[in-house]
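pasting for ref. prot 1 ->
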Amino acid sequence: MEKARRNRTYDVIIVGGGIVGSAAAYYLMKQDRNLKVAVVERDPTYIYASTTLSMANIRIQFSLKENIQISQYAFEVLDCFDDEMAVDDERPNIAFRREGNLFLVDEGGRSNAEKAFALQGSLGCPIEWWSPRKIKEKYPLYDVSHFSAGTYGPQDGHLDAYALLMGYKAKARSLGAAFITDEVIGILDEDRGVCGTALASGSELISNVVVNCAGAWAAVVSRTVGVEIPVIPVKRRIFVLDTKVKPDKPLPLTVLPSGLYFRTETGNLILLGKSMDDDPVGFSFAWDDKRFQDLLWPELADFVPSFDTLRIVRGWAGLYAVNTLDRNAVLGEWPELKGFYLANGFSGHGLQQGPAVGRYISELILGLKPVLDLSVFNPARILENRPLNEGGIV
């Protein structure tokens, strides 16, 4: 890793080297090998990165057109990622496993689910509408008596998030991007535009373009230059379970209307989580199993009665960068500060949206016509207090 040289000048400075920041660096360098791009990441081990602490799920089942299109592009990228990101003789192995996503539908959510399903179909998504009978035939362990349907995405699945991140990072570096180990403690500005960043090491990096890809720390970074964005760090817990009764085949990522979700993992284990209204806000990574014992296990056993006997193998906690305005990404140049670009607020979707967002941000910076119009996510909606509404599956 490079260390920052005092007052070095770059064309673009990216704050945060997770999936979004590394993808943005790659697409910038792919467009123009002569660019000077610096990615500043304070933790190159990525111990606390949302990228590596996620369940690494990729799905196409959204109810907003642009979110669906973002995932469609992600699928295109993943299909050839190992070859495209090869550097000399080194090829990443993201181990993308298309084991599907299954969203259970109850009567209260049926109308929204039908609308989302129709939209997905109109965009060419191979989504299937399953009856309770079909769900039971496919996954006999499930008790579907409380549900009226399910939507199944056969191309959805999960992958090695760390390999995906390292693939983008290695390729971006091979094309000339600099990855600097340091912490951005301030965005520098003058005449209503950015002019660089101040680092914890005492150095300054000079540039008229700064991109905030700081994930759960996005609001902290933006606040140093007086920009307030509604992005907060919310702790999510994941539980790794060893059930006495084993599924006879891999289970898809199965999502209940309550928000409980689970899937099988290597070794026939179960990964489980649930986003809840009282999840702690802040930069804490402490994990315990109390919530599982008291709340999640009873719900899981109600849906999968065979899972009433199990043991917790381990678990971890990571952070969602939640956009409290509307739970959707904030993408583009801040209207009141020239050269300050935001790629924030993914609310748990950052890993799968990284490829399309990285490309889009690079196009905005370079003045290119975007291949995929994502202007609906423009940060002006924050200043206007105008939430981006979508129904159904979000």
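and prot 2 ->
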Amino acid sequence: MSANDLRTFPLVGLEAVANTRNDWVAVALRLHPDTDVQAALLTLFSWPDMAAALAPLDCIVPLADPLRFDDTHMPLLPASRVVLRVRASVLIAPAARKRCAALADAGYRILVDGEAGLHTGQAGAVGIAADCRVALPSTLSLVSLPGPHWARKIADTTRLAACRAAGIDWFSGPYACERQTTPDDSTTRKRLLELLGLLARDAETRDVEVLLKQDPALSYHLLKLVNSAAFGFTNPIHNFGQAINVLGRRQLQRWLQLLLYARQQQDGPANPLLPLAALRAAQMEALVGLQGGDRDRQDMAFVAGVFALLDILLGMPMAEIVGALNLDPEIAAALLHRSGPLGELLALVEQPLAEPAQLAALGLSNEQFWQSQLQAWHWAIQVGRNL
């Protein structure tokens, strides 16, 4: 791929960065290697409502050459929301350190990507950004800076625990999709599958209500949701019948599909799968809409996106889950084989970084893909905050 392929509009991947409670605190921008990083950032941050879509998350952006970041760029990249990631090797140059120090004085937080050297303090850095697949940053480098420190590319929960024990604050990587061990009994698993089956068949409201009453955790989260500021109802909702009536059938199905991922203890950490499921579902829906799909096709895309993590949530083979749910054949093909129109879109949204050829084959432009990302991230952020 040449830089010319991305000249009209840059392709960017967005990666969630979470804290110790699995809450999203930042989003990291990932760009193709051939992209002009400086130009890409200015284009992306010029997009209408870009900052609002990702609020309140910080945006971690790579700064390949601090000397190219001048004062005219600052209004587009607000210091209150932008964290600059600078490679440690770049800071060897005195001019780069001086420019980073000036940016730090202007309010930007700077993370050094790599082992902090002797000159890190001169650059105004506050923390370390480290690829933690092989080795953790030294204790000296971590304690010498106030943080936050960001551990990237964490493969599993074992490595996550080591990063936390080392004193790192922010985390990202595929660990969030590691197969879970909950639910921990066959009764709960059977109830979950039964509820999913009712939703897939568009069952009667009273049947859904009966099953909800058997699941205290899910019931709690549903009532908490409808009484949150996100819905703004004047009078408190106290029972399932009211909740179902005020949400409506379509919204009820969507929220219940997501609430399946919100089964943590009331005072425990968030389930890292919840915002990921919301993100994939919302982007699938947005992409189908951009392709010209009607409301029914968009609903199918949403279901495929939200169900794509059920095998991880339930600790079961996807074939077994699909067999129990009697799903539409196109949704089943997408979940089992990533085949068919929905399967191709699902494979696309699951990738860390899309390719222009993929988008072209699906009839989508780079700009449309960026639009779908912002729309999906905005919704997933709200879901994470309300659940």
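The first helix runs from residue 37 to 45.
Residues 1-6 have pLDDT under 50 and may be disordered.
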